[in-house]
Amino acid sequence: MWRAVEYDWRTAPLDGRVRATLGFIEKLTLRPDELSRADADAVLAEGVSEDALVDAIHVAALFNMIVRLADSFGWDIRQRLE
Questions:
Q1: Other residues' Cβ atoms within 10 Å of the Cβ of residue 20
Q2: What letter would DSSP give residue 33?
Q3: Residue 79: what pLDDT?
Q4: Contact between 44 and 50 (Cβ < 8 Å)
Q5: Distance of alpha carbon 44 from alpha carbon 4, whole angstroms
Q6: What DSSP designation does 12 have?
Q7: Taking CA 55 as the corner, what is the angle to CA 17 and CA 18, rounded to the nearest 5 degrees?
Q8: Long-range Cβ pairs for the range 71-78 (8 Å, 24+)
Q9: Which of 10, 36, 40, 70 could form a disulfide with 75 if both were Cys (CB 3.0 to 4.6 A apart)?
Q10: CA distances from 81 to 26, 37, 46, 62, 75 (A)
Q11: Within 13 A of 46's CA, how many CA atoms are on the CB side?
Q12: Residue 69 neighbours by CB under 8 Å, 6+ apart
């Protein structure tokens, strides 16, 4: 399953709730200016609870912030592990 998700989450055998949430998070990350209430409504219509969507948004936002800070400061975890 993980290999299918890693290859392309859109075609991986995922539950509709997970697929909808991933699509929302991808748009939030890559095209936030295009995100609308309709996107959230589509995820909720798949059966994702509002609390679960908020949790996913928080996790994605924190992850994105950490990655952008790491890139900005030139942090490279591989250098620290060697």
A1: 20
A2: G
A3: 59
A4: yes
A5: 24
A6: S
A7: 15
A8: none
A9: 70
A10: 29, 42, 41, 23, 12
A11: 19
A12: 75
pTM here is 0.80
- What average pLDDT values come out for the chain (82 residues) when binned by 10 residues? 77 90 95 96 98 97 91 76 55
What is the residue whose two structure tokens read 């996913």?
56
- Rounded to whole angstroms, the Cα distance separating 25 from 39 reads 10
Spell out the alpha helix ranges (H) of the chain. 2-7, 16-30, 37-45, 50-73, 77-81
Residue type at 13 in one-letter notation: P
Question: CB atoms < 10 A from the CB of 21, how many?
Answer: 21
Q: Token pair for residue 4?
A: 């299918």
DSSP 38-55: HHHHHHHHTT--HHHHHH
